[in-house]
Structures are given as structure tokens and as C-alpha cells.
């Protein structure tokens, strides 16, 4: 690559439009989730019914509750360990602490932002729907689990990112679904956490492409870790799951489900689909933005 071509590639990487559009989308999606599921009666009822469905399900499946609670209780430590290993390995392999420190700062900011939003800024109005009126949006556990996967994603070279994004989306989906099924959080809390991490992952990626542009370039797409199948494995099931959750929430009665176990299980199923679909779709979106911003000119 000659000097002129390199300058053009650096200019493409530094161009902010792609990052800005994605950041606006993530912020708007977060606001929309909060407005519907927290501030509207219909949204609160859907969210609450999914949580009640989880509680009723646990009453029927008590034998599985204890090991699942142990796993969820250790999830923050597992996630922090995975993220820390990725940062350390990156520092050793690339012989630089710049990228790990940038990523650590970005993901740390995501975790801190979640706590500030939940405990200081955002409020959950009491509409007489839930006995628990303390705001739990967004989920701190889910933020930490998701941020650890994003840290790994940011630390690998671009040709590995589609694979890591797919695996990270699956991990975040499982962690989020477990958080709902065990009755710790409502679905909207978990999706809100995904969107917080997405927003900060984009900021982190923007800074990384400016700070270490050579490392954050596509050299080839002909590599199994960057195969199109990984992208399809996020977008297709993710969007289908989101669509299915919307259909379920639209078909099921939004209010006065009472103690109807089957209806509550339907809301629980819709919540799990929403969480899984959001995790895969948002990791897929993150990967697409990173790919677009770091692709060399003349490569397909």
C-alpha cells in the first residue's frame, strides 16, 4: 500500500459519520425502551407479567433453582475474569497497553453509567401495576456480563470480530435470559443494559480506530473467523426472535392476567425471545459498524 492510499484509509477510519449515526440510533433505542416499558402502563404491565411468569415458573421448577442461582451469583466474577484475560492477552500480544486501557475505560464507563442511570437519574413511576416500585432499569448484572464480551470483541483483530461478536451475543443472551427467568430483572431492564453497552462500545471503537488504526483494519475477509455465516447467525435469529416477541406481546392480553399460569408463561416466553433477539441483533449491529469503519478501500 502506497502513502496516498494509506492516508485515504486513515481518513476513512477517522471519519465520524458511521460512528455518530450508530450512537444516535443506540441512544434513541434506549430512550424508546424506557419510554414504553417504564413510563407507559401497557409497557409496565407487559414487563411485569414476564417477571411474574418467571416467579411462577420457578415455583414449578424449584429443583433447578439453586444451581441456577449459584451460576447467576457468580456471573459478575466470571464476566470480569473473561474480560480481564482478554485485556491482558492483548497487552502482551500487541506489546501495548493503549488499546486495553481504552477498552477498560469504555466498559468501565458503561458499568458506571448503568448505576448512575438506575439509582440517580431514571425513575419508575408507580402505576399500581407492580408491588416493587423501585427503579431497576437498566440491569447492572447484564451490563457487566455484556461489557466483558465487548471487551474481548474490541481486543481481537478485525478478522476475528464476527466470530467473537456471535459468541458474545449468545453469552449475553444466556446471561440476560437467566437474569429474567430467575426473577432478578424484568426484560426491559436487560435490553436497556444491552443498549448502554452498545453505546459505549461504539465510543470505544471510535477511539480505538483513531488510536491504533493499523491494528483496526481489515486485511482480508477470506478467513473463517470473518465468514458471512457468523453475521447471518446474529441477524437472522435475532430479528426473528424480536419479531416473535412483538407478536406474542401483541396477541396476549396486556392487563389483568391475574394468576393465569399459561398466560404468564407466554409473557415469560416473549421476554426471553426479546432478550435473546436484542442480544444477537445488537451484537450484530456493533460488528457491522466496526467492519464498515475499519474496512480498507478496494477490499470486499
Any overview of this molecule?
This protein has helices spanning 3-14, 17-37, 41-60, 65-94, 98-121, 140-155, 161-181, 187-211, 228-251, 261-294. The protein is elongated. The protein has one domain (3-294). The relative contact order is 0.17. The model is unreliable at 1-5 (pLDDT under 50). The protein is built from 10 helices and no strands. It starts with a helix and ends in a 6-residue tail after the last helix. The chain is mostly helical and 300 residues long. 76% of the residues lie in helices and 0% in strands. The chain crosses the membrane at residues 17-39, 75-93, 98-117, 137-156, 163-184, 190-212, 232-252, 264-290. It comes from Zhihengliuella halotolerans. Pfam families: PAP2. This is PAP2 superfamily protein. Keywords: Membrane, Transmembrane, Transmembrane helix.
Amino acid at each position: 500500500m502506497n502513502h496516498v492510499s494509506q492516508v485515504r484509509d486513515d481518513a476513512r477510519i477517522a471519519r465520524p459519520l458511521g460512528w455518530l449515526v450508530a450512537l444516535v440510533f443506540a441512544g434513541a433505542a434506549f430512550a424508546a425502551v424506557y419510554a414504553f416499558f417504564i413510563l407507559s402502563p401497557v409497557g409496565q404491565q407487559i414487563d411485569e407479567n414476564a417477571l411474574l411468569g418467571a416467579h411462577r415458573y420457578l415455583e414449578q421448577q424449584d429443583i433447578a433453582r439453586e444451581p441456577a442461582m449459584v451460576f447467576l451469583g457468580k456471573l459478575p466474577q466470571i464476566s470480569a475474569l473473561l474480560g480481564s484475560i482478554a485485556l491482558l492477552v492483548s497487552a502482551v500480544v500487541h506489546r501495548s497497553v493503549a488499546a486495553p486501557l481504552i477498552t477498560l475505560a469504555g466498559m468501565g464507563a458503561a458499568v458506571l453509567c448503568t448505576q448512575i442511570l438506575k439509582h440517580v437519574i431514571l425513575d419508575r413511576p408507580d402505576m399500581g401495576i407492580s408491588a416493587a416500585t423501585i427503579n431497576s432499569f437498566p440491569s447492572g448484572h447484564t451490563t457487566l456480563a455484556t461489557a466483558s464480551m465487548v471487551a474481548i470483541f474490541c481486543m481481537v483483530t478485525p478478522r476475528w470480530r464476527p466470530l467473537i461478536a456471535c459468541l458474545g451475543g449468545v453469552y449475553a443472551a444466556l446471561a440476560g435470559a437467566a437474569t429474567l427467568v430467575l426473577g432478578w430483572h424484568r426484560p426491559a431492564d436487560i435490553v436497556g443494559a444491552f443498549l448502554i453497552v452498545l453505546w459505549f462500545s461504539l465510543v470505544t471503537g471510535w477511539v480505538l480506530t483513531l488510536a491504533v488504526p493499523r491494528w483496526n483494519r481489515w486485511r482480508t475477509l477470506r478467513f473463517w473467523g470473518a465468514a458471512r455465516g457468523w453475521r447471518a447467525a446474529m441477524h437472522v435469529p435475532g430479528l426473528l426472535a424480536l419479531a416473535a416477541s412483538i407478536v406474542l406481546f401483541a396477541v396476549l392480553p396486556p392487563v389483568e392476567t391475574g394468576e393465569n399460569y399459561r398466560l404468564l408463561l407466554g409473557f415469560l416466553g416473549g421476554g426471553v425471545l426479546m432478550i435473546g433477539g436484542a442480544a444477537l441483533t445488537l451484537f450484530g449491529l456493533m460488528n457491522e459498524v466496526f467492519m464498515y469503519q475499519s474496512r480498507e478501500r478496494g477490499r470486499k
